[in-house]
Every structure is written in structure tokens, then in C-alpha cells.
Design a protein that fits this description.
mainly alpha
């Protein structure tokens, strides 16, 4: 089913999800002006867990899957991402670079199945790597090599979480994320106390403005609960090949929102880097879809 065949309400819902996920990077950046990054991440998963865990039944998956997912996504993806966005990388570029999780996710899946790398995947990875190289070549005070490395590590954490979720089979992804948050909170709290210190965390919590708490609520309710629930609802009703490519719009919303709301500069090199990374992601996601449509129909 092509994207154009989506009912208008379903198309608008998909656009709403990718808009929330993309503009969320601006929300993160604003909250980090008041909250330490690891404490902020711990709050995000605390409110994703509570009170939803009392209303959603635990998915019928092994506890080790929930634990691995919670640690990889909580501490691995968002803990590192928030640290990076705390002055080491701009929101627009963070929204772009973290999407390389696609390549790590595919790599883990191929390692598990023994599948060989295909030519289009090499070409896609080459394009994306070239885009990352352009960003690295233009490192400055807004985007440092450390920030770039941390976001790539965050993408690896995301990919690891995707792999664990895949091993868990078909589950209610909203309930899965909520129950996995039980294992995201403790390592984030521990890391925050060790690296940021209770005096700094407690002072930030006392002084946090309503806008900061709204950002925490948006991270938990809007980005996590609404995003996963709506995306899962769409995937349950339409082929993955119809819905998944729309995730390519996340960096578009991310970079656009950062430019419009935060005044992030968009020089030619940044647009070129984004074009290379997006081209790599698009090739990797869309090539199998196009190739499948060009195959002759099976014989009667």
C-alpha cells in the first residue's frame, strides 16, 4: 500500500508522531538549561513508568528482555544523548546523527542471522558516513567531536534496544516501554548522583521552572507514551513499508524546529551533511521496497 493510500486521519497521525519526535530535540535543549542531563533523563523515565505501569499489564516477555531494553534505551540512548546535547552538539544535528541507529540495527540483525551485506547497504552506509565526516570536519563550539561521538554511541544504544525488542516478538510496544522504564530509572539515578552530585541535582529540582517540568512531562507523555502508542497503532493497521519511511521526516522536523525556534544556523555544509545522511537512510529504507515492487508476480 503506498503512502498516498493512507486515510487522511492516519496520515495526519503519522505526521503528528514524527513532528513530536523531531521537535522534541528543541524541548530537550531548552530543558537542559535548567536540569542536569542525567537527572533529566531519570525524570523522563520515572514519569513514563508512573502511573502507567499500574494500568498496563506486563508484556509476556522475559524480565531480562525488559531489563536489557530499559538499560540500553534509558542509559545508553537517552542518557548519552542528553549529555551530548548539554553543550556538545546542536539539536538539529543531534536529531540527524542519531538516525544512524538504522545502520547499527541492521548490522545487529545481520550478525544474528548470518545475512550478507548487500551492495545497496554499502552504498547507503557510505553516503551516511560521508555526511558524518562533513559534520566532523566542521566541528566548532556548537558541535564538538565529543558530542558527535556521544550521539553515535546513543544511536548504538538505540539499535541495541531495537534488537532486544525484536527478540521479544510481537508485543504491545507501549506496555513494553513502560515496564522497561522500571530498569531505565535506577542506572540513570545512580549515574546522576555519581557524575552530577546530589547538591547540583537537588538545587536544579528546587529551582526548575514550570517550563522545565512541562518539558519533562512532554518527554514522558508526548514523546514516549503518545509517540509509541500511535506509531504502534499505525503499524498494526498498515504495512511497515508504508509507515516506516515516514520516520525519515524526523530530522527534517528536528533541524527545522531548531532553526526556527532556537536560531540554529544552517550553513551550506550542514545542509550538505544532512543531505548525505538522509540520502543514505532513504536508500537503505526505500531500496528494498522499490525492489520488491519490481519483482514479477508469482506464477499461478
Amino acid at each position: 500500500m503506498p503512502v498516498a493510500a493512507l486515510p487522511l486521519t492516519h496520515l495526519l497521525l503519522a505526521l503528528a508522531v514524527v513532528a513530536v519526535w523531531g521537535t522534541n530535540f528543541v524541548v530537550i535543549k531548552q530543558a537542559l538549561t535548567e536540569l542536569p542531563p542525567l537527572a533529566f533523563a531519570a525524570l523522563r523515565f520515572t514519569f513514563a513508568l508512573l502511573p502507567a505501569v499500574f494500568f498496563l499489564p506486563r508484556p509476556k516477555v522475559p524480565w531480562r528482555h525488559l531489563a536489557a531494553y530499559g538499560v540500553l534505551i534509558g542509559a545508553g540512548q537517552f542518557g548519552l544523548l542528553y549529555i551530548a546535547m548539554n553543550g556538545e552538539i546542536s539539536p538539529g544535528l543531534a536529531s540527524l546523527v542519531v538516525q544512524v541507529q538504522v545502520f547499527f540495527t541492521i548490522g545487529l540483525a545481520m550478525a544474528a542471522t548470518g545475512e550478507r551485506v548487500r551492495l545497496f547497504q554499502i552504498a547507503a552506509l557510505t553516503l551516511a558516513t560521508a555526511g558524518i565526516g562533513v559534520i566532523l570536519a566542521h566541528s566548532d563550539r556548537t558541535t564538538t567531536p565529543l558530542g558527535l561521538a556521544l550521539v553515535i554511541l546513543a544511536a548504538m544504544g538505540w539499535a541495541g534496544g531495537n534488537h532486544v525488542a525484536k527478540l521479544s516478538g510481537r508485543v504491545n510496544m507501549l506496555a513494553y516501554v513502560v515496564w522497561a522504564s522500571l530498569f531505565s530509572v535506577p542506572p540513570l539515578v545512580a549515574m546522576s548522583l555519581v557524575l552530577e552530585g546530589w547538591p547540583a541535582v537537588s538545587a536544579a529540582l528546587v529551582k526548575a521552572s514550570p517550563a522545565a517540568w512541562a518539558a519533562v512531562a512532554w518527554q514522558s507523555a508526548g514523546n514516549t507514551l503518545f509517540g509509541y502508542a500511535a506509531w504502534g497503532w499505525l503499524l498494526a493497521r498498515h504495512p511497515a513499508a508504508t509507515i516506516t519511511p515516514m520516520a525519515l521526516l524526523v530530522p527534517v522536523f528536528g533541524m527545522g524546529a531548531s532553526a526556527l525556534l532556537l536560531g540554529e544556523a544552517m550553513p551550506i555544509w550542514k545542509i550538505a551533511a544532512a543531505s548525505l545522511v538522509m540520502a543514505g537512510l532513504a536508500l537503505n529504507i526505500l531500496w528494498p521496497i522499490v525492489a520488491a515492487r519490481r519483482l514479477p508476480p508469482p506464477a499461478a
